[in-house]
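BUG: 3D viewer hangs when loading the predicted structure for this chain

Environment: internal workstation, default settings.
Expected: structure renders.
Actual: progress bar stalls at 90%.

Input used:
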Amino acid sequence: MAKNQKNYAQAKDRVEKKIGFMIHAGVYVVVNAGLITLNLTRSPEKYWFVWPLCGWGAGVLFHGIKVFGSGSASSWKEKMIEKEQSKLDQ
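Structure tokens produced before the viewer hung:
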């Protein structure tokens, strides 16, 4: 029973992180679309929208890697803990 509760807590945490990323990505798209529109209508001679697009885009990229990356530190740590536990159980 305790393992099911632990699995539920881990699954809930992962889902919350994925939802957080989706919200972050959605806000990124909406805000940057607005910035691009603003830039192209107010000062089309200079493309300044590229700077927030790239800077924030890097943040979204790293957020996505952290959430969806298969080599995340927490899963690596969990695998090491399970390996050590199996050694101790023998």
